[in-house]
Amino acid sequence: MKLTIPLSTLLLLLTTNSFSQTIADLKLKPKEIPKGYTLSDGQICVTNAACNFYTDIATYSNIIGTVKSKAIQSFKNRADSGSIMYIEFENRFKGDRFLQGLLWGKDGQPTDEHPEEYLALGKFLIIWSFHPDSPVKEKSETKIEAILQ
């Protein structure tokens, strides 16, 4: 007997994993936090623009889309601190140009003064408000890219 699987079923099985991710899956777990760092309550942003965007995100819904859920993780150690903002949208994030202008101004890319970086993939937007060489940011980026791509 020959087993056949309809192409649509096969595609559904292959793509279900990318659509079933949650913010909890993307967050750093305690064992994944680099040595010397501790979780901190609240927001710790390198610049105010990132934290203000996260706090007032509903204000921008007509530009970026409707937010389904959001969470933040903040970390600190002696030499480094910052926040990772996780945002899930009802549909795809659609505010790349807007967010670039908000975070970086006319430069259109991270600078020493405005080092925030972000990844928008599908329904998820992750903003790292850390300095570029942060071990927490690097650990988080590696994890998120492995999960979402």
Characterization of this structure:
The chain has 149 residues and is an alpha+beta fold. It has helices at 7-19, 23-26, 48-55, 61-64, 96-104, 135-148, and strands at 38-40, 67-76, 81-89, 117-121, 124-129. Strands 1-2-3-5-4 form a 5-stranded antiparallel beta sheet, with helices on both faces. Strand 4 and strand 5 form a beta hairpin. The N and C termini lie far apart (36 Å).
Please describe the structure with a list of short key phrases separated by commas or semicolons.
alpha+beta; disordered N terminus; 5-stranded antiparallel beta sheet; 5 strands; 149 residues
Shape estimate: globular
Structural category is alpha+beta
Overall strand count: 5
How are strands sequenced across the largest beta sheet? 1-2-3-5-4
User: Number of helical runs?
Assistant: 6
- How far apart, in Å, are the first and last alpha carbons? 36 Å
- Reading the helices and strands in chain order gives HHEHHEEHEEH
Could you describe the largest sheet, including whether it forms a barrel?
A: 5 strands, antiparallel
Q: Which radius of gyration do the C-alpha atoms yield?
A: 17 Å
In helices, the fraction of residues equals 25-40%
> Which stretches are poorly predicted, pLDDT < 50 over at least 5 residues?
1-18
Strand content: 15-25%
Query: pLDDT average, as an integer?
Result: 88
Secondary structure layout plus pairing:
Blueprint: H1 7-19, H2 23-26, E1 38-40, H3 48-55, H4 61-64, E2 67-76, E3 81-89, H5 96-104, E4 117-121, E5 124-129, H6 135-148
Antiparallel strand pairs: 1-2, 2-3, 3-5, 4-5
